[in-house]
Amino acid sequence: MGLEEKTLRIFLACLTTFSALSVSAEPVSIQCGASEGWSYYFAGGLVSDEKSGFSKDAITGGKTTLVVDDDGNGDVLFVDSTGSLGSAKQQGGEVIVLNANDTAGMNWLLMYPGGVIENYALNLSTMKVAAWRNTVGNLAVAKNSLLVADCTFK
Q: Residue 74 gets which letter from DSSP?
């Protein structure tokens, strides 16, 4: 186990400890639709120097559901490009839900093997989610994205 993996494990242990203290055990299900925003593509892999940099990005027809079960465990469900239902946990992701404030918002922090990190930051007063995704560990397409979507309680 390398230093980076040890550091990540310590970071995850701290987040898990703090998240256990901050998540209510009330079930939550919030459905979000299509999203749009910006992505930054790093040169390398399938991305040429000319195609690197910022570009508008969107997931049209996107469906994402942010959930917290009765025990306070979170997951992020989504419909992928093939129309199949997926789950962050089923794809090997660790999901931590953090209350931003009792009434202001919630965050779903996802960490996947291979270094992909996502954060779904839900603002409860606007019912919008800002989804940040970091895939710099992906050798084919390394990018960071920030996409915003409208949401409703399900």
A: E
